[in-house]
Amino acid sequence: MKRRGLLNAPLSRLIAELGHTDMLVIADAGLPIPPGVPRVDLALRPGLPGFLEVFDVLADELCVEGVTLAQEIREANSGLHDQVEQRLVALERRDGQSLARDFVSHDAFKRLLPSARAVIRTGECSPYANIALHSGVAF
């Protein structure tokens, strides 16, 4: 049994299988996930687990070179946007490199989903609480 870090076996395997530029999406409870896109459903009840909790665990495990968010998060969920931005800055400090940030419309974000390696569904119930993490390399 693992002593620390990510304990969820499907997520751990998924992260280990990611290659450079692969996309992994963390989604709120309401994001429509297209048929055929692998889903890791962590949602237990509204708010559990929260978006930031899942983001924090995955960020500890992943090498991220960029993110994509819906531009609507800036106004419709500015508090969450600010918290995500703080975490991205911390990742940049940790890894010693800048992270690309791409903002697209929510509709365009949904059109990206078929190319995701997987969508991780959280119990988050706040608007536009979705992020696409683009895998980097550790060398």
Main attributes of the structure:
139 residues; alpha/beta; six-stranded mixed beta sheet; 21% strand; globular
Question: Could you describe the 3D structure shown?
Answer:
With 139 residues, the protein is an alpha/beta fold. Helices cover 35% and strands 21% of the residues. A 6-stranded mixed sheet has the order 2-5-1-6-3-4.
**What characterizes the major β-sheet?**
6 strands, mixed
Arithmetic mean of pLDDT: 96
**Proportion of strand residues:** 15-25%
Write the H/E string, N to C.
Answer: HEEHEHHEHEE
Number of helices: 5
Radius of gyration: 14 Å
| Quaternary structure classification | single chain
N-to-C CA distance: 28 Å
Unreliable sequence segments: none
Strand order of the largest sheet: 2-5-1-6-3-4
Backbone structural class: alpha/beta
Assign a percent range to the helix content. 25-40%
**What is the count of β-strands?**
6
What gross morphology would you assign?
globular
Summarize the structure.
The chain is an alpha/beta fold.
List the helices and strands and how they pair.
Elements: H1 9-17, E1 23-27, E2 39-41, H2 51-61, E3 64-70, H3 73-76, H4 78-95, E4 100-104, H5 106-112, E5 118-121, E6 131-135
